[in-house]
Amino acid sequence: MPIETIKLGQVLSDPANMREQFNKLAPNSTFQSFHDFLELAIVEADSPFIFNAGSDNLAIDPAINIQEGGVLRATAGDGDGSAAVDGSQVCLAVPVQVNKGGLAFECRINLTDITKCSAFVGFTDVTTLEEPVSVSGTTITTNASNAVGFVFDTAMTTKEWWSVGVSGNTDDTGSNTTGVAPVNATYQVLRCEVNSTGTQGVFSIDGVVVKTLSVGVAAASTNLFFTVFINGDGSNSAAATADVDYMLVEHMMLGQVKLENGILMKITILFVIGLLTLVL
User: Which site among 59, 100, 222, 227 is 20 to 30 Å from 19 CA-CA?
Assistant: First the structure.
């Protein structure tokens, strides 16, 4: 824990200060995996990731792309537009479940050409090559039985990030557009927080909440894996890419660990009684 400077006039026994310090010692997370891709190269066997790619010659496993700050690049093919041919995907191989107190992911990503690709960022239930969710027109196709995240598809009528959820092969009826579109070669931070029962998902882009799903977002006790998937659209002769600056996956206790004022007051009283006992 880093050493902190005591501010002038700061009262260390003040309830607000004590609550803040307690929450730093008992952070609001039980699991966290953060990757910033600062390596010069990454080898699947020596990493926590699984890399998948389709059969097209341009579809390749995600790899480090030397850029400022470090980037993992997924490169789609230019074949028939199917995942088996054109897909490129990275999966975090560590399984997580929402019933462990809630689940969240955050990913800073840019799509290099939104006119010729589809992409999914979020949780899915398998680590083999698969496009978890796609959208054509206004019709959602969920290939995954359990998934939650953001999807973009050049075949959409409204070409924006959509928030989607599917639990036990049943799509969340609220899955729809977020009102925010990706911009070519421009980074966006995508984040989703799912509660511990899998019945609510809060989606944000660049720190702004854009959608909340509240029907069947994710199966509570199913193993999920964070993934970034990109696919070609089947009609362009050049590969599309997705650059991932960082990815974060964490179990969130969603307030269960946070020390509230009432509990803090009880601890303060017990602390004072303890001091008086020692003095007397």
Answer: 100
